[in-house]
Design a protein that fits this description.
Length: 237
């Protein structure tokens, strides 16, 4: 796979790269550098991997409720549903939200993670890929809002500066990112806003790390160590 440069690809095809929500159109139109989010979806998302990590960290098996923060056009919701997970989504980009299939419009909502349209404790778990695209002055507001609607825990799948350099460069991970932090810096924000680190047992961390390594067999690892990956999981206080 060649190194991604979304802006270059957008220019080559004369694509309108206007901002829509917190990201530009090229973010989703050239998701892997050449293909769109829809075309490269299976390469970047695995519902079973997410469910396995939730089971390892919190001991929970479907059925349960889950909110995908940064759900794009709702493709993740259909994949979660196949596993018996009652998944909902919230997406900031009107451009991507407009591509949601009619059957998922009721559960995939156009909205802002800083002001979620749900009651308190509505979801058992949250899966987040949106926080790193939220401006720094709003990130902690979003974290408190996420804690408000969550009952158990959050899997933070966002970008950190201490992910492996090869993965950052190959996948252009810093593209459109608004808040760049190390895993530890992200954890400090979570800890101030209604969360605590979920993994305290080294055996559970070892199992989570094995799940991560197995999922990336034959490919570059996204995290350089179990210690960095530990900062992906938080339990609501």
């Amino acid at each position: 796979m060649k190194k991604i440069n979304r802006d270059t690809e957008a220019e080559l095809v004369g694509s309108d790269n206007a901002a829509c929500g917190n990201v530009n159109k090229a973010y989703h139109d050239f998701y892997d550098g050449e293909r769109s989010y829809e075309e490269s979806f299976e390469e970047y998302f695995d519902a079973e991997y997410n469910a396995d990590l939730i089971e390892i960290v919190w001991g929970a098996r479907p059925p349960y409720t889950l909110l995908d923060c940064g759900s794009a056009n709702g493709l993740t919701l259909a994949e979660f549903a196949k596993l018996g997970i009652d998944a909902w989504g919230v997406e900031n980009s009107a451009y991507m939200y407009a591509k949601t299939a009619p059957e998922w419009r009721a559960k995939n909502l156009l909205g802002d993670v800083c002001e979620l349209p749900f009651p308190e404790n509505r979801f058992d778990f949250l899966y987040d890929t949106s926080l790193c695209y939220v401006p720094p002055d709003k990130v902690e507001t979003a974290m408190r809002e996420m804690a408000r609607v969550c009952r158990k825990g959050i899997f933070f799948g966002g970008i950190t500066t201490d992910m492996t350099t090869e993965v950052i460069e190959r996948h252009d991970l810093f593209y459109n990112v608004a808040t760049l932090c190390t895993g530890r810096e992200w954890s400090e924000k979570f800890l101030r806003n209604g969360w605590r680190i979920a993994i305290v047992d080294p055996n559970i961390l070892a199992r989570a790390w094995k799940c991560e390594c197995d999922a990336n067999t034959g490919d570059l690892p996204w995290y350089p160590s179990p210690g960095v990956m530990r900062y992906c999981f938080y339990t609501k206080l």
